[in-house]
Amino acid sequence: MRRVPYLVCAVIILVSASSSQAWAAGWKLQTTPNPSANYNALTAVTTTSASNAWAVGYEGSNLGSSEVGLIEHYTGAWSVDSLPTAPGGLELWGVKATSASNVWAVGFTSPQNLP
């Protein structure tokens, strides 16, 4: 059973329920590319400076089908970085950068034809 959609909904409800502008002081909304018309999910982010950040996650056409790994890079604006495809899909759930050019992402892939 996948629990990600429920977690995302809970965070959105919590943020939407807050009406205090003071709560949001210092925060700035950043839009990111949405490569899939159906769904995109960012699961982790890391930064090395105010002008260098990496976010990872996955995108797909139907929940539960083969997802495609998603890496987005911020250098003043967000852009999608390419990565190899994996048989059965790929989801990225963690990312760590030690410099602008040394970035590690972790996740999992599922075999295509499970019994």
Question: In a few lines, what is going on in this structure?
Answer:
By secondary structure, the chain is mainly β.
Architecture overview:
The protein has 115 residues and is mainly beta. It contains one helix and six strands, in the order αββββββ. The chain has one helix at 4-17, and strands at 39-49, 52-60, 68-74, 78-81, 90-99, 102-109. The chain has a four-stranded antiparallel sheet with strand order 1-2-3-4, with no helix packed on it. A hairpin with a 2-residue loop joins strand 5 (90-99) and strand 6. The longest helix is centred in the first third of the chain and has 14 residues, at 4-17.
Structural class: mainly beta
pLDDT averaged over residues:
75
Distance N terminus to C terminus?
17 Å
Kindly estimate the percentage of residues that lie in beta strands according to DSSP. 35-45%
What's the topology here?
Blueprint: H1 4-17, E1 39-49, E2 52-60, E3 68-74, E4 78-81, E5 90-99, E6 102-109
Antiparallel strand pairs: 1-2, 2-3, 3-4, 5-6
Short descriptors:
1 helix; 115 residues; mainly beta; 12% helix; 4-stranded antiparallel β-sheet
